[in-house]
TrEMBL record:
GO terms for cellular component: nucleus. Signal peptide: none annotated. Pfam families: PHD (PF00628), Tudor_2 (PF18104). It comes from Hippocampus comes. Residues 312-379 are annotated as: Disordered. GO terms for molecular function: chromatin binding; DNA binding; zinc ion binding. Transmembrane segments: none annotated. This is PHD finger protein 1. Keywords: Metal-binding, Nucleus, Repeat, Zinc, Zinc-finger.
């Protein structure tokens, strides 16, 4: 008997159970509360009862329809039969799927790109062994979109389409993403298979090459860091995790650094004895007034330190000024708001601190995976 095709995907409706891809590259279970057909987005309530607007392209519905069609082009089988995914049962024309489904593929066990990524992506880095790891390696040799069609900001940090990585999902460059040194696209930590340790927020001290540019497995190399870079990176990471500006040197800054020392991959700094780290970090914080502010300068405790500007540390080879939150929220070339900003504006009375738009301090629903402060833990 021919494989059973998935019914036609109907338009998204209130009450639909969905999987929504978030800016970390992972999928979260939710329920559609409102649909905006003009803006092509939905208000989704997640398992922790938080609600956020999500672009339609990043929502995957379980809802069934009435007609057997390809879930990409929505055309019926006609001359070309549909191949159904073993896991989700969605039907695809061979040429509509990325990469194309090979003629010799076993239609009884074939798994689509969406399901491969749903299983393989993980916090800290995608799985590296097993069938789904191998399938992911193969899927990542091609992007499911045209890279040249994306409209980037002048600093190449964000694009108008909110399309990043191998998964084509939303993203924020400073929230655990790596930029390919060849094509310039940004890739989620959760979608990469080359990392040995989890990323910190704002950590750009890597030379990364994506699978598309390499025509094979990804490669990554840790770039050298100074004590000033380390102090800046730790403060930035803590400021996003804790949503505060000032941190106690002994109990938070030094403690976090020591607890995660091996995971920081500090190269030449790695051999620094524990008793010397305190002096080097404190000297970096006190000597760089353009980057750091001490509590004593604002009539607080002198053991408190914060960033002058909440921005990731610049690379040593980067002569451009620090990229601030305000600067990276610019407008498009035509003067209109990018799609992600338009979604944020439309939230009206919602608490900005709970915004699920990919650019608000790494927000994530509290019930589906809180981010921890210890890098070598499951988070």
């Amino acid at each position: 008997a021919p494989p059973r095709s998935r019914p036609r995907r109907r338009e998204m409706s209130e009450g639909d159970d969905v999987l929504a891809r978030w800016s970390d590259g992972l999928l979260y279970l939710g329920n559609v509360k409102r649909v905006d057909g003009v803006k092509q987005c939905c208000l989704v309530r997640f398992e922790d009862n938080s609600e956020f607007w999500v672009l339609r392209k990043d929502i995957h519905s379980f809802a069934a329809g009435v007609e057997e069609v390809c879930c990409i082009c929505e055309a019926p089988p006609l001359k070309e039969p549909l191949v159904n995914c073993l896991k989700c049962r969605h039907g695809y024309h061979a040429e509509c799927h990325t990469p194309s489904i090979e003629p010799e593929a076993d239609s009884e066990s074939w798994i689509c790109r969406q399901c491969v990524f749903a299983v393989a992506t993980k916090r800290g880095g995608a799985i590296k062994r097993g069938r789904f790891a191998r399938l992911m390696h193969f899927m990542k040799l091609r992007l499911p979109y045209q890279l040249t069609s994306l409209d980037w900001d002048p600093q190449h940090l964000s694009n108008q389409q909110q399309c990043y990585c191998y998964c084509a999902g939303p993203g924020e460059w400073n929230l655990k993403m790596l930029q390919c040194a060849s094509c310039g696209q940004w890739f989620h930590e959760a979608c990469t298979q080359c990392l040995t340790k989890p990323l910190l927020y704002g950590d750009r001290f890597y030379q990364f090459q994506c699978s598309v540019c390499n025509k094979g497995p990804e490669t990554v190399k840790r770039l050298p860091m100074t004590w000033v870079d380390l102090a800046h990176l730790v403060l930035y990471h803590l400021s996003l995790c804790c949503k505060r500006k000032y941190f106690d040197f002994d109990h938070e800054i030094l403690s976090f650094t020591n607890e995660n020392w091996d995971s920081l991959l500090l190269g030449a700094l790695s051999d620094t004895p524990r008793q010397e780290r305190c002096h080097n970090l404190l000297n970096a914080l006190n000597s760089q007034k353009d980057r750091f502010v001490s509590g004593k300068e604002i009539k607080k405790k002198k053991c408190l330190f914060g960033l002058q500007v909440r921005a990731p540390p610049p690379l040593s080879s980067d002569s451009s000024p620090l990229i601030t939150e305000r600067a990276r929220r610019g407008r498009r070339r035509d003067g209109r708001r990018p799609a992600s900003q338009e979604l944020e504006r439309r939230r009206g009375g919602e608490n900005p601190g709970q915004t699920r738009d990919a650019g608000r301090e790494g927000a994530v629903p509290s019930g589906v995976g809180q981010r921890g402060l210890v890098l070598n833990s499951t988070h």
